[in-house]
Design a protein that fits this description.
- 34% of the residues lie in helices and 15% in strands.
- The protein has a single domain, classed as Rossmann fold (3-Layer(aba) Sandwich).
- The chain is built from nine helices and eight strands.
- The protein is an alpha/beta fold.
- Strand 3, helix 3 and strand 4 form a beta-alpha-beta unit.
- The chain has a six-stranded parallel beta sheet with strand order 2-1-3-4-7-8, sandwiched between helices. Strands 5-6 form a two-stranded antiparallel sheet.
- Helix 1 crosses helix 9 and helix 2 packs across helix 3.
Length: 241
């Protein structure tokens, strides 16, 4: 049985992946759903990417987790890449679920369309702590487009403002993902329009992994809300040897 550690995306917490974890645990696996520093409601929103990554390194160390299948969703791809670079001896496989795949020196904003950068720059400049919140119309139409309005509103109410420095800080890596010496997988939700289809998650970002396993599954960027069982099944396919 595998040990899965599921790392959420921006605006989320680990709790929001518990419905996914339930199905994976039912198959006998161990699943952890930590919250990245900066994403709990009471957390400091001025932190940067280094602190966010370090929080998950610390989590793995404090729980003595070895041979981990480490999944990152969206922004979580930045986090798991940094974690794998710092403690590769604890990693069995990386899974990127519609996630950013950075090389050393890249920040998240380097991998999104210019209109998103402009939007987030504007939102963060009006906040008191350099945080950003995703506007509901973008959430509803681009992130959770496979859900009902009621599902979209319910899920949006669970989100928190996100520390913007984690989007603008370049990641510092000793080894780029393509050269990391363990298994890598990419889950691509085929109706995900959180990034424009012309600026796609796959293959634009997935190909930066080099050799990887591709799992494609119907659904939006927020399949964890709209069909957590289907997402769990995709994760187990991505994570198996």
């Amino acid at each position: 049985m595998a040990i899965y550690v599921l790392i959420h995306g921006a605006w989320h917490t680990g709790e929001l992946l518990e419905a996914v974890a339930k199905t994976i645990r039912a198959k006998g696996h161990t699943v952890h759903c930590p919250t990245v520093a900066g994403n709990n409601r009471e957390d400091d929103r001025t932190i940067g990417l280094d602190v966010a990554i370090a929080s998950i390194v610390t989590y793995l160390e404090e729980h003595n987790l070895q041979d981990v299948v480490l999944l990152g969703h969206s922004y979580g791809g930045m986090v798991i890449t940094g974690v794998a670079d710092r403690v590769p001896e604890r990693i069995h496989r990386l899974i990127y679920w519609n996630a950013f795949v950075p090389n050393g020196g890249e920040c998240l904003n380097d991998m999104v369309p210019p209109h998103y950068v402009g939007l987030f720059d504007s939102i963060s400049s009006e906040s008191s702590d350099n945080s950003v919140m995703l506007p509901f119309p973008i959430w509803r139409e681009a992130f959770i487009n496979d859900g009902s309005l009621e599902e979209a509103e319910f899920a949006y109410g669970k989100l928190n403002a996100h520390p913007y420095a984690t989007f603008t800080d370049p990641i510092l890596l000793k080894t780029n993902p393509v050269d990391m010496q363990f298994g890598k997988s990419f889950i691509n939700c085929t109706e995900d329009t959180a990034l424009p289809q012309s600026f796609s998650w796959h293959p634009r970002l997935s190909e930066k992994l080099g050799l990887f396993r591709l799992i494609q599954v119907p659904g939006s960027h927020e399949l964890c809300f709209t069909d957590p069982t289907r997402l769990a099944e995709a994760i187990m396919k991505a994570g198996r040897d």
